[in-house]
Amino acid sequence: GVIARLAGGRLAPEAVPDGPTLWWAWGAPNGPAWAVGEAGRILRRDPDGRWTAEPSGLDDKAVLWGIWGASASDLWAAGGSTRRGGPKAVVLRSSGNGQWHRVLDARLPSEDPTDPLAGRNLYKVWGSGPTEVFVVGEAGIALRWDGQAWATLPGADALLFTVHGHPAGARFAVGGLDQGRVFTVNDTRLEEVPLGALNPLNGVAVSPDGVLAVGARGVMLWNDGLAWCRQRPQPDWATATLHGARLAPARWAVGGDLAAQTAGVILTDEPVDEVALP
C-alpha cells in the first residue's frame, strides 16, 4: 500500500508497513488518521507519524473500500469481497480504541453461507455527523443511519461507488458500470440527475463552492451550483481511471491504472512541491 500526505504545501510518501493494497483513508482534523484495504486491512496513523495495524476481525477474502468518521471516536468502514465465499455488505464500527466490530442488520445485504450468490458489496461510507451516515454499493444500494436504525433509500438502479456531501448543503452519489450516473441524496430517496452519456463515475466531492465528480478515461465533471460542465482531460491523464475526488478547497483527483495498479495519477489545481512517489 502507498500513502501520500500533504503538509505545508509538500506532498510526500508516508512510511507504511508492508501489506495488502490500501483503498481509502480518512483523518480526524488535527488528530489520527486511518486507511483501509485488501484482506480487511486497517492502519492507524498517530500524531507521531507512525502507521500501525488494527485488527478488523475479517479474513483475507474481505476488502474494505471505504472509511469515514464522525469523529476520531466514532468510525465507520464499508466493504465486502470479490472472492467466492467472502463476506458481503461489510460495515464495521469503532470507537477509536483500536477495536472494530461488524454491524449486522436485516437491511444490510450480507452473505448467506447457503447461497454463494447472496449479498452485495458496499463501497463507501460518509456522513454529516453521528446521526446521519450514508452507505452505498452494488445494485443501487443506498442506506441511511439516523443514529438509531438503518433505512433503505430507493431511487437508484445502478452500482454506486461513492457518496459525499456538505453538512449544510447538497449530497450526491455517483457510479455506473456502462455509463456514469449521478444522484442527489435526500433523507428518504435518491433522485437521478439527467446528464446524458458519460464515462462511468467513481468519485465525488462536495463543498460549499461546488461539486466535483471523476471517473473512467479521465472524465471530470464540475458543478458550480448553477450547471454541470465537463472538464477537458489532458493527454497525460485522458486514459486514467480517476478513483477519488477532494475539495479542500482546491480541487484534487487521484487514480491511475486500477487493473494493473500502476501509473498512478494525482491531479490538483493547488500549488504543490513535487515529491517522487513509489
Explain what the structure shows:
It is a single chain. This protein is mostly beta strands. The chain has a single domain (4-268), classed as 6 Propeller (Neuraminidase), CATH 2.120.10.30. 0% of the residues lie in helices and 47% in strands. The protein has strands at residues 4-7, 10-13, 22-27, 33-37, 42-45, 51-53, 63-71, 74-80, 90-94, 100-102, 122-129, 132-137, 142-145, 150-152, 160-165, 171-175, 181-185, 190-192, 201-207, 210-215, 220-223, 228-230, 241-247, 251-257, 262-268. The strands form 7 sheets. Strands 3-4-5-6 form a 4-stranded antiparallel sheet, with no helix packed on it. A 4-stranded antiparallel sheet has the order 7-8-9-10, with no helix packed on it. A 4-stranded antiparallel sheet has the order 11-12-13-14, with no helix packed on it. The radius of gyration is 18 Å and the shape is globular. The mean pLDDT is 93.
